[in-house]
Amino acid sequence: MSAPTAAAEWQHVKSRQVDTNGISLRVFEHGPADSDKPLVVLCHGFPELAFSWRHQVLALGAAGYRVLAPDLRGFGGSSRPAEPEAYDTLTVCADLVGLLDEVGADDAVFVGHDWGAQVVWHMAWEHPERVRGVVGMSVPVAPRSPVAPLPVMRRRLGDAFYMVWFQEPGVADRALAHNVRRTLVTREIWSAEWAERPDEKFPPPRWLDDDELAYYVEEFERTGFTGGLNYYRNLDRTWELTEHLAGRTIDRPSLFVTGSADPVARFMPADRLEEVLTDLRGRVVLDGAGHWIQQERAGAVNAALLEFLDGVG
Predict the structure, then answer these.
(1) Where are the beta strands (DSSP E) in the chain?
(2) Is 236 a catalytic residue?
(3) Which of 44, 113, 122, 291 is catalytic?
(4) What angle do CA 294, 300, 8 make, to 5 degrees?
(5) Is 114 among the catalytic positions?
(6) Tell me: the pLDDT tens digits for 218-272?
(7) pTM of the entire predicted model
(8) Of 94, 160, 246, 277, most Cβ neighbours within 10 A?
(9) Structure confidence by residue, pLDDT tens digits, 124-153
Protein backbone atom coordinates (compact mmCIF):
# COMPACT_ATOMS: atom_id res chain seq x y z
CA MET A 1 0.00 0.00 0.00
CA SER A 2 1.41 3.39 -0.97
CA ALA A 3 1.88 6.14 1.60
CA PRO A 4 -0.83 8.82 1.71
CA THR A 5 -0.03 11.95 -0.27
CA ALA A 6 0.20 15.40 1.27
CA ALA A 7 -3.03 16.32 -0.52
CA ALA A 8 -4.79 13.33 1.07
CA GLU A 9 -3.41 14.13 4.52
CA TRP A 10 -4.45 17.77 4.10
CA GLN A 11 -8.07 16.66 4.09
CA HIS A 12 -7.64 15.84 7.78
CA VAL A 13 -6.20 19.24 8.74
CA LYS A 14 -8.88 21.19 10.55
CA SER A 15 -9.96 24.61 9.37
CA ARG A 16 -12.30 27.24 10.73
CA GLN A 17 -13.34 30.81 10.04
CA VAL A 18 -11.73 33.50 12.19
CA ASP A 19 -13.19 37.01 12.33
CA THR A 20 -10.46 39.61 12.37
CA ASN A 21 -10.04 43.24 11.31
CA GLY A 22 -13.51 43.39 9.78
CA ILE A 23 -13.13 40.28 7.59
CA SER A 24 -13.19 36.49 7.94
CA LEU A 25 -10.13 34.33 7.37
CA ARG A 26 -10.21 30.61 6.69
CA VAL A 27 -7.46 29.31 8.95
CA PHE A 28 -6.03 25.79 8.91
CA GLU A 29 -4.75 24.60 12.30
CA HIS A 30 -2.49 21.71 13.11
CA GLY A 31 -0.35 20.53 15.99
CA PRO A 32 -0.94 20.51 19.74
CA ALA A 33 -2.96 23.45 21.01
CA ASP A 34 -1.11 23.33 24.35
CA SER A 35 2.40 23.24 22.88
CA ASP A 36 5.11 25.04 24.85
CA LYS A 37 6.92 25.74 21.58
CA PRO A 38 6.43 28.99 19.64
CA LEU A 39 3.26 29.36 17.63
CA VAL A 40 4.01 29.35 13.88
CA VAL A 41 1.96 31.34 11.34
CA LEU A 42 2.50 30.55 7.65
CA CYS A 43 1.65 33.21 5.03
CA HIS A 44 1.33 32.21 1.38
CA GLY A 45 1.99 34.14 -1.81
CA PHE A 46 0.40 34.58 -5.25
CA PRO A 47 -1.21 32.61 -6.76
CA GLU A 48 -1.20 30.31 -3.78
CA LEU A 49 -3.26 29.37 -0.75
CA ALA A 50 -2.73 28.01 2.74
CA PHE A 51 -2.58 24.68 0.89
CA SER A 52 0.85 25.67 -0.47
CA TRP A 53 2.17 25.04 3.07
CA ARG A 54 0.72 21.51 3.29
CA HIS A 55 4.16 19.88 3.65
CA GLN A 56 5.24 22.35 6.33
CA VAL A 57 1.95 22.25 8.26
CA LEU A 58 2.18 18.47 8.53
CA ALA A 59 5.89 18.38 9.41
CA LEU A 60 5.80 21.21 11.97
CA GLY A 61 2.69 19.80 13.60
CA ALA A 62 4.36 16.40 13.88
CA ALA A 63 7.34 18.10 15.53
CA GLY A 64 5.11 19.52 18.25
CA TYR A 65 4.46 23.03 16.94
CA ARG A 66 1.03 24.60 16.79
CA VAL A 67 0.68 25.89 13.24
CA LEU A 68 -1.80 28.35 11.74
CA ALA A 69 -1.99 28.69 7.95
CA PRO A 70 -4.58 31.23 6.79
CA ASP A 71 -5.89 31.82 3.33
CA LEU A 72 -4.95 35.50 3.31
CA ARG A 73 -7.63 38.08 2.54
CA GLY A 74 -8.65 37.84 -1.09
CA PHE A 75 -7.87 34.13 -1.37
CA GLY A 76 -9.60 30.79 -0.99
CA GLY A 77 -12.11 30.57 1.84
CA SER A 78 -11.35 34.04 3.24
CA SER A 79 -13.16 37.31 2.63
CA ARG A 80 -12.49 39.05 -0.68
CA PRO A 81 -13.25 42.75 -0.21
CA ALA A 82 -14.18 44.45 -3.49
CA GLU A 83 -12.23 47.65 -2.90
CA PRO A 84 -8.63 47.46 -4.22
CA GLU A 85 -7.43 49.72 -1.40
CA ALA A 86 -8.42 47.00 1.11
CA TYR A 87 -5.22 45.09 0.26
CA ASP A 88 -2.33 47.26 1.39
CA THR A 89 0.29 45.36 3.36
CA LEU A 90 -0.35 47.06 6.70
CA THR A 91 -4.02 46.07 6.52
CA VAL A 92 -2.99 42.44 5.88
CA CYS A 93 -0.68 42.68 8.90
CA ALA A 94 -3.61 43.91 10.99
CA ASP A 95 -5.49 40.76 9.95
CA LEU A 96 -2.67 38.70 11.43
CA VAL A 97 -2.58 40.71 14.65
CA GLY A 98 -6.28 39.98 15.03
CA LEU A 99 -5.59 36.30 14.37
CA LEU A 100 -3.09 36.22 17.24
CA ASP A 101 -5.60 37.95 19.48
CA GLU A 102 -8.30 35.43 18.56
CA VAL A 103 -6.15 32.44 19.51
CA GLY A 104 -4.85 34.16 22.64
CA ALA A 105 -1.21 34.28 21.53
CA ASP A 106 1.15 37.06 22.53
CA ASP A 107 3.41 36.42 19.55
CA ALA A 108 4.39 33.91 16.87
CA VAL A 109 7.12 33.01 14.44
CA PHE A 110 5.89 34.30 11.08
CA VAL A 111 6.94 32.51 7.90
CA GLY A 112 6.08 33.93 4.49
CA HIS A 113 6.67 33.05 0.86
CA ASP A 114 6.44 35.43 -2.11
CA TRP A 115 3.83 38.08 -1.16
CA GLY A 116 3.62 36.38 2.20
CA ALA A 117 7.29 37.23 2.71
CA GLN A 118 6.52 40.91 2.14
CA VAL A 119 3.75 40.61 4.70
CA VAL A 120 5.86 38.96 7.40
CA TRP A 121 8.76 41.38 6.93
CA HIS A 122 6.28 44.20 7.47
CA MET A 123 4.80 42.40 10.49
CA ALA A 124 8.25 42.44 12.06
CA TRP A 125 8.67 46.13 11.25
CA GLU A 126 5.20 47.32 12.24
CA HIS A 127 4.37 44.95 15.13
CA PRO A 128 7.70 43.70 16.55
CA GLU A 129 6.11 42.92 19.92
CA ARG A 130 3.94 40.26 18.23
CA VAL A 131 6.80 38.62 16.32
CA ARG A 132 9.01 35.98 18.00
CA GLY A 133 10.95 35.37 14.79
CA VAL A 134 10.53 35.87 11.06
CA VAL A 135 11.35 33.78 7.98
CA GLY A 136 11.09 35.13 4.45
CA MET A 137 11.21 32.87 1.41
CA SER A 138 12.01 33.93 -2.16
CA VAL A 139 11.33 37.65 -1.60
CA PRO A 140 14.07 39.36 0.41
CA VAL A 141 13.72 42.35 2.67
CA ALA A 142 15.48 45.61 1.88
CA PRO A 143 15.48 49.12 3.33
CA ARG A 144 12.46 51.20 2.37
CA SER A 145 12.98 52.78 -1.03
CA PRO A 146 13.21 56.59 -1.13
CA VAL A 147 10.79 56.57 -4.08
CA ALA A 148 7.57 54.70 -4.94
CA PRO A 149 8.24 51.32 -6.59
CA LEU A 150 5.96 51.31 -9.63
CA PRO A 151 7.56 54.22 -11.53
CA VAL A 152 10.94 52.55 -11.00
CA MET A 153 9.61 49.24 -12.33
CA ARG A 154 8.14 50.92 -15.39
CA ARG A 155 11.40 52.69 -16.14
CA ARG A 156 13.70 49.71 -15.56
CA LEU A 157 11.53 46.77 -16.60
CA GLY A 158 8.90 48.25 -18.91
CA ASP A 159 5.12 48.21 -19.11
CA ALA A 160 5.17 44.53 -20.05
CA PHE A 161 6.66 43.54 -16.68
CA TYR A 162 4.05 41.46 -14.90
CA MET A 163 3.70 43.67 -11.81
CA VAL A 164 3.06 46.67 -14.08
CA TRP A 165 0.68 44.72 -16.32
CA PHE A 166 -1.29 43.72 -13.21
CA GLN A 167 -2.14 47.34 -12.36
CA GLU A 168 -5.19 47.98 -14.56
CA PRO A 169 -8.24 46.45 -12.86
CA GLY A 170 -9.93 43.74 -14.85
CA VAL A 171 -7.26 43.12 -17.49
CA ALA A 172 -5.00 40.56 -15.85
CA ASP A 173 -7.98 39.33 -13.83
CA ARG A 174 -9.74 38.15 -17.01
CA ALA A 175 -6.57 36.81 -18.61
CA LEU A 176 -5.54 34.69 -15.62
CA ALA A 177 -9.07 33.38 -15.04
CA HIS A 178 -9.59 32.44 -18.72
CA ASN A 179 -7.80 29.11 -18.22
CA VAL A 180 -6.91 28.63 -14.58
CA ARG A 181 -4.97 25.44 -15.15
CA ARG A 182 -2.80 27.13 -17.77
CA THR A 183 -2.20 30.09 -15.45
CA LEU A 184 -1.00 27.81 -12.68
CA VAL A 185 1.30 25.54 -14.69
CA THR A 186 2.72 27.93 -17.28
CA ARG A 187 6.49 28.06 -17.47
CA GLU A 188 6.45 31.75 -18.32
CA ILE A 189 5.88 34.94 -16.39
CA TRP A 190 2.40 36.26 -17.05
CA SER A 191 2.13 39.17 -19.47
CA ALA A 192 -0.18 40.68 -22.09
CA GLU A 193 1.78 38.80 -24.76
CA TRP A 194 1.36 35.54 -22.85
CA ALA A 195 -2.37 36.19 -22.50
CA GLU A 196 -2.86 36.68 -26.25
CA ARG A 197 -1.22 33.42 -27.30
CA PRO A 198 -3.10 30.14 -27.73
CA ASP A 199 -3.36 28.09 -24.57
CA GLU A 200 -0.38 25.82 -23.98
CA LYS A 201 -0.90 22.39 -22.47
CA PHE A 202 2.00 22.00 -20.07
CA PRO A 203 2.02 19.17 -17.55
CA PRO A 204 2.20 20.21 -13.90
CA PRO A 205 5.69 20.49 -12.40
CA ARG A 206 7.04 17.29 -10.89
CA TRP A 207 6.44 18.57 -7.35
CA LEU A 208 2.69 19.09 -7.96
CA ASP A 209 0.63 15.96 -8.50
CA ASP A 210 -2.76 15.83 -10.19
CA ASP A 211 -4.73 15.99 -6.93
CA GLU A 212 -2.74 18.98 -5.70
CA LEU A 213 -3.18 20.83 -8.97
CA ALA A 214 -6.89 20.05 -8.94
CA TYR A 215 -7.19 21.64 -5.47
CA TYR A 216 -5.67 24.89 -6.75
CA VAL A 217 -7.68 24.90 -9.97
CA GLU A 218 -10.97 24.35 -8.16
CA GLU A 219 -10.29 27.14 -5.68
CA PHE A 220 -9.18 29.74 -8.23
CA GLU A 221 -11.96 28.85 -10.65
CA ARG A 222 -14.33 29.65 -7.78
CA THR A 223 -12.67 32.85 -6.53
CA GLY A 224 -10.80 34.26 -9.52
CA PHE A 225 -7.52 36.10 -9.07
CA THR A 226 -8.65 39.66 -8.31
CA GLY A 227 -8.00 39.47 -4.57
CA GLY A 228 -4.39 38.47 -5.10
CA LEU A 229 -3.87 40.97 -7.92
CA ASN A 230 -5.04 43.74 -5.58
CA TYR A 231 -1.91 43.19 -3.47
CA TYR A 232 0.14 44.35 -6.48
CA ARG A 233 -2.23 47.28 -7.01
CA ASN A 234 -1.26 48.56 -3.56
CA LEU A 235 2.51 48.63 -4.12
CA ASP A 236 2.69 52.42 -4.21
CA ARG A 237 -0.02 52.85 -1.57
CA THR A 238 1.81 50.58 0.86
CA TRP A 239 4.97 52.59 0.19
CA GLU A 240 3.08 55.78 1.07
CA LEU A 241 1.66 54.26 4.24
CA THR A 242 5.03 53.04 5.51
CA GLU A 243 6.99 56.28 5.56
CA HIS A 244 7.32 55.85 9.32
CA LEU A 245 9.30 52.62 8.75
CA ALA A 246 12.16 54.35 6.94
CA GLY A 247 15.43 53.44 8.64
CA ARG A 248 13.81 50.93 10.99
CA THR A 249 15.53 47.58 11.48
CA ILE A 250 14.11 44.16 12.26
CA ASP A 251 15.69 42.95 15.49
CA ARG A 252 13.96 39.61 15.91
CA PRO A 253 15.69 36.35 14.90
CA SER A 254 15.37 35.99 11.14
CA LEU A 255 16.06 33.60 8.28
CA PHE A 256 16.00 33.93 4.50
CA VAL A 257 15.42 30.93 2.24
CA THR A 258 15.51 30.92 -1.55
CA GLY A 259 16.35 28.81 -4.58
CA SER A 260 19.37 29.44 -6.75
CA ALA A 261 17.13 29.36 -9.85
CA ASP A 262 14.40 31.64 -8.48
CA PRO A 263 13.68 34.30 -11.16
CA VAL A 264 12.70 36.81 -8.47
CA ALA A 265 16.41 37.30 -7.74
CA ARG A 266 16.82 38.94 -11.16
CA PHE A 267 14.92 42.03 -10.03
CA MET A 268 14.90 41.67 -6.22
CA PRO A 269 18.43 40.68 -5.17
CA ALA A 270 19.03 39.65 -1.57
CA ASP A 271 22.08 41.86 -1.19
CA ARG A 272 20.82 44.20 1.55
CA LEU A 273 19.47 41.79 4.15
CA GLU A 274 22.00 42.76 6.79
CA GLU A 275 21.02 46.43 6.51
CA VAL A 276 17.60 45.50 7.91
CA LEU A 277 18.02 42.21 9.78
CA THR A 278 20.15 42.67 12.89
CA ASP A 279 19.74 39.04 14.03
CA LEU A 280 19.98 37.14 10.75
CA ARG A 281 20.46 33.48 11.72
CA GLY A 282 21.04 32.18 8.20
CA ARG A 283 20.69 32.53 4.46
CA VAL A 284 19.69 29.22 2.87
CA VAL A 285 20.09 28.93 -0.91
CA LEU A 286 18.86 25.62 -2.31
CA ASP A 287 20.81 24.70 -5.39
CA GLY A 288 18.69 24.42 -8.53
CA ALA A 289 15.42 25.23 -6.77
CA GLY A 290 12.99 27.67 -8.33
CA HIS A 291 10.38 30.03 -6.92
CA TRP A 292 7.78 27.69 -5.39
CA ILE A 293 10.35 26.51 -2.93
CA GLN A 294 8.32 25.17 0.00
CA GLN A 295 6.52 22.83 -2.38
CA GLU A 296 9.42 22.00 -4.70
CA ARG A 297 11.95 21.30 -1.93
CA ALA A 298 9.67 20.51 0.98
CA GLY A 299 12.17 18.35 2.86
CA ALA A 300 14.98 20.89 2.76
CA VAL A 301 12.64 23.75 3.68
CA ASN A 302 11.19 21.77 6.58
CA ALA A 303 14.69 21.02 7.87
CA ALA A 304 15.68 24.70 7.67
CA LEU A 305 12.52 25.79 9.47
CA LEU A 306 12.87 23.23 12.25
CA GLU A 307 16.50 24.21 12.84
CA PHE A 308 15.55 27.88 12.97
CA LEU A 309 12.57 27.27 15.25
CA ASP A 310 14.70 25.22 17.61
CA GLY A 311 17.11 28.15 17.90
CA VAL A 312 14.34 30.68 18.49
CA GLY A 313 12.88 28.60 21.32
Answers:
(1) 14-20, 23-30, 40-43, 67-70, 108-113, 131-137, 254-259, 280-286
(2) no
(3) 291
(4) 55
(5) yes
(6) 999 999 999 999 999 999 999 999 999 999 999 999 999 999 999 999 999 999 9
(7) 0.97
(8) 277
(9) 999 999 999 999 999 999 999 999 999 999
